[in-house]
Write a structure and sequence with these properties.
Largest interface: A-B, 18 and 19 residues
Structural class of chain B: mainly alpha
Distance between the termini of chain B: 11 Å
Number of strands of chain A: 7
Radius of gyration of chain B: 16 Å
Structural class of chain A: alpha+beta
Strand content of chain A: 35-45%
Radius of gyration of chain A: 20 Å
Number of helices of chain A: 2
Number of helices of chain B: 6
Order of helices and strands of chain B: HHHHHH
Oligomer: heterodimer
Strand content of chain B: under 5%
Chain lengths: ~120, ~170
């Protein structure tokens, strides 16, 4: 193989490796959240502090969800929606992460102080 | 004197061509809707052609004429800033790689495309103040590589077919 083409391939591999590393660095440096903002149909229903372990029941005309804060992580522990995607979602704790219950128009989003 | 005029005319025509390619590219539908603003880099075929047919100087001059006019005609200060940063870094990187002499035209073109995207991401992070845009980087690295290959090959073909014209 031509040496220049070989160098090109090395270059491409380097680019890919570096961008994957950069991606990992970004993922790890995501900020830890301070509060969970719960909105239903766009309306802010509750704001929970991530430092306090609590269980918040959200009961609206769209449905029922139970949001729990435990060890600085937020999760939906129960809901009466048909697909239960919200319940099966991963626990979230970083700024910007969300758990969504579409049938109930519920969004739980991690945000930082001041928002 | 005659060669100078000939060269000047040729470069002017190429500058117009680069501007037209920019415009045409902006009319095409987005290739990847997940990342708005992602482009194929058609005008860079001309830039890489100039890089190898002439030298860095000509590529830089035509590049900046294109940016200036496209920015004035079709864009605003923000788009000009992004393009300027992209061109600045990519021309620098390409010049460096070409001077080393260890990479083919396609390799240089790939490096140019990827560094162009990198510069734009960096400007976006500085301007918008959020790190999250960095998530686009792997995507842009891949699309930059693909675009670089395409532009590089086109450039090689262009050089081949114009080989007998001298300035």
């Amino acid at each position: 193989m031509n040496i220049k083409i070989k160098n090109d391939l090395i270059l491409i591999s380097l680019i890919l490796v570096i961008s994957i590393l950069a991606f990992l660095v970004f993922t790890i440096s995501l900020k830890k959240g301070e509060k969970a903002v719960i909105t239903v149909n766009g309306e802010k229903i509750a704001v929970l502090d991530l430092r306090e372990d609590t269980t918040q029941k959200i009961d609206t005309k769209y449905g029922f969800n139970e949001v729990r804060i435990e060890n600085g992580e937020v999760s939906v522990v129960s809901a009466d929606c048909p697909d239960k995607i919200c319940v099966e979602s991963r626990h979230i704790s970083k700024v910007g992460e969300t758990i969504v219950c579409l049938p109930h128009k519920l969004v739980v989003e991690i945000s930082e102080v001041g928002n | 004197m005659k060669t100078q005029v000939k060269k000047l005319t040729f470069l002017s025509v190429l500058s117009s061509l680069a501007i037209i390619l920019s415009f045409v590219e902006s009319l095409l539908p987005p290739i990847w809707s997940a990342v708005p603003g992602i482009k194929m880099g058609l005008p860079n075929v001309i830039i890489i052609f100039l890089f190898y047919k002439f030298s860095v100087k000509e590529a830089v001059v035509v590049s900046f004429i294109r940016l200036l006019i496209v920015g004035l005609l079709f864009g605003n200060f923000m788009t000009f800033l992004y393009s300027f940063a992209g061109a600045f870094l990519s021309l620098g990187v390409m010049w460096l790689l070409k001077s080393l002499g260890k990479f083919s035209q396609v390799g240089v073109s790939i490096a140019g495309a990827v560094s162009h995207n990198l510069a734009q991401v960096i400007v976006a992070i500085l301007v918008l103040g959020t790190k999250e845009i960095g998530f686009y980087m792997p995507v842009l690295a891949v699309s930059g590589t693909v675009a670089g290959i395409f532009v590089g090959i086109s450039g090689i073909l262009l050089l081949k077919y114009t080989a007998k014209y001298r300035f």
